[in-house]
Amino acid sequence: LSPGAKMGCFTFIKVMMILFNLAIFLSGGTLLGVGIWVKVDGESFLKIFGALSSSVLQVVNVSYLLIVIGAILLVIGFLGCYGAQKESKCLLMMFFSVVLIIFIAEVVAAVVALVFTGLAETLLAGLVTPLLKEKYGVDDTFTHIWNVTMTEVHCCGLNNYTDFNNSKFYETHGSFPRQCFGVSPPLAHPHLRGCLLQGCFKQILEEIKTNAGVAGGVAAGIAALEIAAMAVSMYLYCRLDEK
């Protein structure tokens, strides 16, 4: 290619890099804002987006998840957009490094999810079960999220009803949550008559497996975008030496 064509190609890729990362930056800011909103006024958020309450994300703290994802997207968007606009090799390398770290983390998480599902369940139980014992029946937003989840998914607790043993809710009411009782045959324990024995984790895992094709397609698309972003940032980084 002639020098003019090379410069035109460089300018085009630079502009696309700026626009792409500007979109990421704005998306990150939106998610961060929504996460803060959920944290500050979770009840209003749930009233507006009640239909989403049965999603997989209800087993974790949605506000913190949105804040973390939003903050990461803000950093990535800023590094990519400002680095390309200022033609800063330092910022472009930082952008490449951050995206590479995220890409590696996603690959590792995917391998762990596929190979060590039992381990993932153990780790999740270690995080969520203590929250159920401490916050269910005490924190209104947390309780509402879990009530809707257990009702929609037809489950009880993360692993099963024993997640509520020795919990603040059980100590106060002397029974398991109303959402845990279905139409199954009566059991020996008076508090377990008709109790749904399956936990939400296994039910959600089955739903994920059912929609594995869609999830895999989305994951592949995200991975392709990340690889493209790294390739473009490295192209700009290398071309700056030639200018």
TrEMBL record:
SUPFAM superfamilies: Tetraspanin. The chain crosses the membrane at residues 12-38, 58-79, 91-116, 214-238. Keywords: Glycoprotein, Lysosome, Membrane, Transmembrane, Transmembrane helix. InterPro entries: Tetraspanin/Peripherin, Tetraspanin_animals, Tetraspanin_CS, Tetraspanin_EC2_sf. Its main location: membrane. CDD domains: uroplakin_I_like_LEL (cd03156). Gene3D superfamilies: Tetraspanin (1.10.1450.10). It is found in: Lysosome membrane; Membrane. It is a multi-pass membrane protein. One of its GO terms (cellular component) is plasma membrane. Interacts with SLC19A2. Interacts with NTRK1/TRKA. Belongs to the tetraspanin (TM4SF) family. Structural component of specialized membrane microdomains known as tetraspanin-enriched microdomains (TERMs), which act as platforms for receptor clustering and signaling. Participates thereby in diverse biological functions such as cell signal transduction, adhesion, migration and protein trafficking. Regulates neuronal differentiation in response to NGF by facilitating NGF-mediated activation of NTRK1/TRKA receptor tyrosine kinase and subsequent downstream signaling pathways. Plays a role in the inhibition of TNFalpha-induced apoptosis. This is Tetraspanin.
